[in-house]
Write a structure and sequence with these properties.
The complex is a heterodimer of chains A (333) and B (128). Chain A is mostly beta strands and 333 residues long. Helix content of chain A is 0%, strand content 56%. Chain A is globular. With 128 residues, chain B is mostly helical. Chain B has one domain. Classes of the chains: A mainly beta (333), B mainly alpha (128). Chains A and B meet through strand 13 of A and helix 3 of B. Chain A: It comes from Salvelinus namaycush (Lake trout).
């Protein structure tokens, strides 16, 4: 492999606790992280390194599991084990808590903003997925509660261009949701993984979905038109590729680079991997090869991986040991 | 000769045991069904009462928010009214109950009402 993944910087982001998630703001100027210490930290670039600009510490009473930036970059949502989701508004270098979304019965596992900026999705250990609408006065209201999973829902992700949502769960399935008559419904259940599905990511065009699992594999799903397609019939999602034999342990997170199409994974074997798609493969039977691998990227489980939205090859990961690592991926081709 | 007698005792013993087990099973099953049925109907009637109360409170209110909440209430109330109370073998029971529960969680969120009704209802589905 003449492709490389080089460490640029590693720092202790959440001392004495887990760093659960990292997210770049849409412009790529700030990095938000959250962790087991119940805080959210905002990191900004100072020359070649990343410095902590703000610490949001009074928002949650328990672990903050995930954070998500609004598409405009002015708001940050945080999902916590205290069953609440906080919406923070950015005011210069500081953030103030605008509102708290309540309703889940227990730990909120994920929050995600739709590309339109008008919708938000949350999911929880209570097995439900909630869709919230934001109005012009910045008021948040729940529009749907969907119980399609039979176990803890780990992650939700929005399609990059359509109003379509996907979720994954401890029940080994992925669900895809669409709005019908003001109500959100599960339109497809993607079965195939043999254990908990931890993460999901759409490809830049939104035609394919990648999932990663406790079964140590990554699956690529594609929406296929049904035969003799009747109008209004939902397309089915089929698994078109499975990456197995690459990961030694649970794959906790996966990210598809919006700029280069490379696929990065975060693994319970402490490693970070990047996969490249084979350009010559049949689009209905894609093939990926391992392009770069850092076996001991961290000293403990890697929980999250995120590509920079503007700078190709810039990648960030975080770990159970509280650290964040910044990487530069370069493809030789 | 011995083995023929032993064999017939085995057969009779098995038959008597099976009959006794069937009888006891029916008694236990009936108790179980009655208990779960009662829990489920307690939950459904509570939800119905809750929904109707809010419907009465909101229906004379003309503002946009109240209209939205009334509309959200229509769905679970409609589902409950369609519930086949006389059909214990109704195969969509679990699915419909999940829909009703999800709709009520949504309504509670819109009304800003906490959903802890454990003083009134012990719900959570049927488990085996």
């Amino acid at each position: 492999m003449n492709d490389t993944l080089a460490l640029l910087q590693k720092f202790n982001a959440h001392p004495d606790s887990r760093c659960w998630y990292v997210a770049w703001n849409p412009k790529g100027t700030l990095l938000a992280s959250c962790g087991g210490d119940r805080t959210i930290r905002i990191w900004g670039r100072e020359g070649d390194s990343w410095e902590c600009k703000t610490v949001l510490q009074d928002g949650h009473q328990r672990t903050v599991r995930k954070v998500a930036w609004s598409p405009c970059g002015n708001y940050l949502a945080s999902a916590s084990f205290d069953a609440k989701t906080c919406i923070w508004k950015k005011k210069n270098d500081d953030f103030e808590c605008l509102t708290v979304l309540e309703g889940h019965e227990n730990e909120v596992k994920c929050v995600a903003w739709a590309p339109s900026g008008n919708l938000l999705a949350t999911c929880s250990r209570d097995k439900s997925v909630w869709i919230w609408e934001v109005d012009e006065e910045n008021e948040y209201e729940c529009v749907s509660v969907v119980n399609s999973h039979t176990q803890d829902v780990k992650h939700v992700v929005w399609h990059p261009t359509q109003e379509l949502l996907a979720s994954c769960s401890y029940d080994n399935n992925v669900c895809v949701y669409k709005e019908e008559d003001d109500d959100w419904e599960c339109r497809a259940t993607l079965e195939g993984h043999t254990s908990t599905v931890w993460g999901l990511t759409f490809d830049p065009s939104g035609q394919r979905l990648a999932s990663c699992s406790d079964d140590c594999t990554v699956k690529i799903w594609k929406e296929c038109q049904p035969e003799g397609g009747q109008e209004g019939t939902d397309a089915a999602w089929k698994c078109v590729c499975t990456l197995s034999g690459f990961h030694g342990r649970t794959v906790y997170d996966i990210a598809w680079c919006p700029l280069t199409g490379a696929l990065a994974t975060a693994c319970g074997d402490d490693g970070v991997r990047v996969f490249k798609e084979d350009e010559t493969a049949d689009p209905d039977q894609p093939a990926f090869s391992l392009s770069a691998h850092v076996p001991k990227a961290h000293t403990q489980d890697v929980n999250c991986i995120a590509w920079h939205p503007k700078e190709a090859g810039l990648l960030v990961s975080c770990s159970d040991n509280g650290e964040i690592a910044v990487w530069n991926y370069q493809s030789g081709v | 000769m011995d083995s023929v007698i032993t064999q017939s005792f085995h057969v009779e013993g098995y038959r008597k045991g099976f009959d006794e087990g069937t009888r006891q099973g029916m008694i236990d099953g009936r108790k179980h069904r009655a208990s779960h049925g009662a829990k489920l109907s307690t939950e459904v009637s509570f939800d119905y009462g809750f929904g109707i109360t809010w419907k009465c409170l909101l229906q004379n209110n003309t503002d946009v928010k109240a209209r939205k909440r009334l509309k959200a209430l229509e769905s679970p109330l409609g589902l409950i009214l369609k519930f086949p109370h006389e059909e214990p073998q109704y195969e969509n029971l679990q699915e419909d109950m999940e829909k009703v529960r999800a709709k009520f969680r949504l309504v509670c969120s819109l009304l800003n009402v906490p959903t802890d009704f454990s003083d009134y209802v012990k719900s959570g589905g049927i488990s085996f």
